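User: Is it possible to get a 3D structure for a protein together with its bound compound? The compound here is guanine. I've pasted both below.
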Amino acid sequence: MNQSAQKNFPVTWDQFHRDSRALAWRLQGLGPFDAVVAIARGGLVPATIVARELNIRVVESVAVKSYDHKNQGEIRVLKAVSPEILEKDRTGRVLIVDDLVDTGNTARAVREMLPNAHFATVYAKPKGRDLVDSFITEVSQDTWIFFPWDLDVAYVPPISGGTD
Ligand SMILES: O=P(O)(O)OC[C@H]1O[C@H](OP(=O)(O)OP(=O)(O)O)[C@H](O)[C@@H]1O
Ligand SMILES: Nc1nc2[nH]cnc2c(=O)[nH]1
Ligand SMILES: [Mg+2]
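Assistant: Yes, that's possible. Here is the predicted structure of the complex:
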């Protein structure tokens, strides 16, 4: 449950691209990886960027849903990992990518499916941090991250509270 999120952390496309590329730099040398498994939906964007940078051509997905907007519910697996990827996991050369780890519930569920994979996220909150092998930026547990695909350009009133 993330209703306690007090702070907003909006991320632009530019920043997300930069942070995802930074993740690719960090992952280079930890491989080689034969396949990337993106945790849909949020993991699909960074997975594509990482796969491009590391020249990984096999990109798969697993679909896990646990949030309805900011409310966390039961973990539901909507699309399981393919048998080919389960087979590849034995080699330890599978890379799982997600946009963030929060409570760690999603990461825990996917790690059970692919126990030998390297788990990477762009952002991490303290509760889930230890469940990922690599991440770029940590934010506090009471921060809600807004991804660029959740945002639009909008009017903001002046800090002084007056009209502009
Ligand atoms: O560590 P947790 O507390 O499990 O939260 C992290 C997960 O929550 C979000 O996905 P969400 O279930 O909202 O679906 P989405 O990727 O389709 O937005 C996010 O993309 C992570 O996958
Ligand atoms: N967009 C978004 N989804 C989440 N799912 C769990 N935590 C978060 C968060 O901080 N931002
Ligand atoms: Mg997700």
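Residues 39, 42, 98 surround magnesium ion (ligand 3) (CB under 6 Å). The first strand starts at residue 7 and ends at 10.
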